[in-house]
Specification:
heterodimer; A: alpha/beta; Rossmann fold; 2 domains; 7-stranded mixed β-sheet; 5-stranded parallel β-sheet; 12 helices; 15 strands; 45% helix; globular; B: 334 residues; mainly alpha
């Protein structure tokens, strides 16, 4: 009896092993799991893991299971380049990540040379303007988001002067360089322009500068932890003007860390688990259940990145690396075709995305969507 | 490496040790010429990165290991070299060789200027001055966007050509880096063997005795510091075309600490120490990736244990072991 069971098991193992090996498709996620980008990168990674688990549970892509590997970049451009090179050498079908734009800039030529699609979480405007046809975003770029936020400050908040607070890294500086001309176009005066440091702990001095400037609104463009610290400092210093942000300011992590101080923060959100899109909320619940905390926009980006790969592969009906990039370029992915994309997404020729986005406000410790903004080119 | 050990009787022992180092360098270079074949571009890139970091560590080894100066500005000098080369090759279209020499010369000159006042004070005061300099350089790299590209960095840095041969491929650039590394390592080997090198050593062992023997302490410490900085500049000039993109982050203060760690872990004051140290700092974390999410914790634990077990670094441990084997009962001498 025992022998026969063993024999059956052995036979099963023998027959299953080669099939399983054949049926896998390798995806490598090159991501910030340590260093300055660890919060963003970990969210992106978890989003990727969630999507892979979902897809594999439903039979994989074209019948093949996804084998996912994560390589940490330490948020360092040189290491990112090594990791992307390794991913290409190991035959990844597409490169996922990273999120920070410096490391993206250091590594995107590698995937371009290998003609492999690289689907990244970066929002800085620059890297899709270099004519690299293999780079793809998973969110709106700052160039797309900032005109919306400037218009919001002008039209809804009736602001004539704005204090701009930004973090001096590629993300913050990129956003600041995008919003200033937009504000100028609408005739909004920049009352004070405050640069802060990545990883800064004490924002009291910055909050006082903002308070003294006495602008009609405050535009806060910092990474998650720093946003929360700034909101707390601003509350302590009695800054009572509307706090306006773009995606990060209204993120789940910021609301959790800032507590009461986050209430009243307003702004533009590209991706949010609180948006009035059932698919987003469904994702948010699944993410919460699996990882025991609320996902921010980077979790959504990671999730969608895998589904972009799935959609492109099923569209071209084969596993062709270059073909995947060709298929994605210029495509519009509808949730009716691929529910995992969550909302209709148009991929432009340079890798930028066009999607609907949202205006939101934090009320009683929750992000509440107040308005849905249409796609730029509906 | 075998004859490393016999540094006991002053002149003959030193000669024999140096020959061993020379042979190891040449033999190592010959092996490294062929190692990347069939290795893939990732492995080749990591090897190239290792050699580039070795050059910077060699410079710091001269400053710290031979002249005994604790500098916290090595990564800053590397940044100056990298940005000099990147700007000269991308914006002015200068060829890489000229940029390389200018990067080294620039760092040498800056080393002199920085070292002159700093070396009037000793020990941790130099560390403070270099710490301030390091922060200053990083701020300039980040804030002067018109020149350095600021936080967005500089991209598309061209790779050099070698007598008409392009080094765009990973293997070609690896071999190019290898040749430059060997030249710089041999230059340092020669220097250590020269009266200069003996003066550096004398300074480290006992400055007062060195002075009484007629060594001009100020000049030699300044020279050691400037040459060490020039090596960082050379390393930067290779780093920029290797990564083809630079931003301020790899040249921040933490990177200077990391270079210092590589010197100490490899074996400060040993010619081959920098190669072992950079191997630990660059290649070991990459190799440890198989441990998954905890690889940096494993890496840090290994380094801590290593430094507890052998405060003189890996080469120091090898030398001690060798001495113990050859002359049992007499113990090691460094």
């Amino acid at each position: 009896m025992r022998l026969s069971i063993l024999a059956t098991l052995a036979a099963a193992a023998l027959s299953a092993a080669p099939v399983a090996a054949q049926e896998k498709v390798k995806l490598i996620n090159v991501i910030e799991l340590s260093g300055a980008g660890a919060t963003a990168g970990t969210n992106f990674k978890n989003g990727v893991d969630l999507a892979v688990a979902d897809i594999n549970a439903k039979g994989g892509i074209l019948g093949r299971q996804i084998e996912i590997v994560h390589y940490d970049t330490q948020t360092n451009p040189g290491n990112t380049r090594a990791a992307v090179q390794r991913a290409i050498d190991e035959g990844t079908y597409a490169v996922l990540g990273p999120v920070f734009s410096g490391p993206i800039g250091a590594s995107m030529q590698i995937s371009q040379r290998a003609e492999v699609a690289q689907i990244v979480g970066g929002e800085a405007a620059g890297f899709t303007r270099q004519g690299n046809p293999y780079i793809f975003r998973t969110s709106l770029s700052q160039a797309a988001a900032m005109p919306k936020i400037a218009a919001y400050m002008k039209n809804s908040l009736k602001a004539n002067s704005v204090a701009v607070v930004w973090v001096n890294n590629d993300f913050g500086k990129g956003g600041r360089d995008q919003i200033l001309p937009e504000l100028e176009k609408l005739g909004i005066k920049v009352a004070v322009d405050v640069a802060t440091e990545q990883g800064q702990a004490d924002f009291a001095a910055d909050a006082i500068k903002v308070k003294n400037a006495n602008a009609d609104a405050v535009f806060v463009y910092l990474n998650e932890e720093e946003s929360a610290r700034f909101l707390r400092a601003a509350k302590q210093q009695g800054v009572n003007k509307p706090m306006v942000g773009e995606t990060t300011l209204l993120g789940a992590k910021v609301i959790e860390l800032a507590g009461d101080a986050a209430n009243g923060a307003k702004g533009h959100v590209g991706l949010s688990v609180d948006a009035p899109v059932p698919a987003f909320q469904e994702f948010g619940k699944k993410f919460q259940a699996k990882f025991n905390y609320a996902s921010d926009h980077n979790g959504l980006k990671g999730y969608m990145a895998v589904y972009m790969v799935k959609w492109g592969t099923e569209k071209q009906k084969k596993f062709d690396k270059k073909g995947l990039a060709d298929t994605l370029r210029g495509a519009t992915i509808k949730p009716s075709e691929e529910p995992g994309i969550l909302i209709e997404t148009t991929i432009e020729a340079n890798g930028d995305l066009d999607r609907i986005s949202f205006l939101a406000e934090v009320k009683d410790g929750k992000q509440v969507i107040t308005e849905t903004l249409p796609k730029l080119k509906p | 490496m075998s004859s490393l050990a016999s540094a006991t009787t002053p002149s003959r022992g030193l000669m024999r040790r140096i020959d061993g180092v020379f042979l190891t360098l040449v033999l190592g270079a010959a092996i490294l010429w062929f190692v990347p074949i069939g290795m893939g571009r990732y492995g080749t890139y990591v090897l190239s990165l290792w050699m580039v970091m070795s050059i910077a560590v060699m410079g710091l080894n001269l400053t710290l290991g031979y002249a005994g100066l604790k500098s916290l500005a090595q990564a800053a000098f590397m940044g100056i070299g990298a940005y000099t080369t990147a700007l000269l090759t991308t914006k002015l279209g200068l060829n890489w060789y000229a940029s390389f020499l200018l990067s080294g010369a620039g760092c040498f000159a800056l080393g002199l200027v920085l070292g002159f006042p700093a070396l009037r004070v000793k020990a941790h005061y130099l560390a403070f001055v270099t710490l301030a300099f390091s922060t200053l350089v990083w701020l300039v790299l980040r804030n002067e966007q018109w020149l350095t590209g600021g936080v967005f960095g500089l991209s598309n840095i061209p790779r050099p050509t070698f007598f008409g041969l392009k080094t765009d491929g990973a293997l070609a650039f690896h071999r190019f880096t290898l040749v430059i590394t060997l030249i710089l390592a041999l230059a340092l080997w020669w220097m250590i063997r020269s009266p200069w090198g003996r003066a550096f050593l004398a300074l480290r062992e006992n400055p007062i005795r060195a002075a009484s023997l007629g060594v001009n302490i100020r000049t030699y410490t300044l020279l050691a510091f400037a040459i060490g900085s020039a090596y960082a500049g050379f390393a930067g000039a290779l780093y920029a075309p290797l990564v083809e993109f630079i931003d301020p982050s790899p040249f921040a203060l933490s990177a200077s600490f990391f270079l210092l760690l590589m010197v100490v872990a490899g074996g400060s004051g040993y010619q081959l120490g920098p190669f072992v140290g950079a191997l630990l700092g660059v290649v070991l974390p990459e190799w440890l990736r198989f441990t998954g999410g905890i690889y940096l914790i494993v890496f840090a634990s290994i380094v801590v244990m290593l430094l507890i077990a052998c405060p003189q670094g890996v080469i120091g441990l090898v030398e001690r072991g060798w001495l113990a084997l050859r002359r049992p009962g007499k113990g090691g001498a460094a």
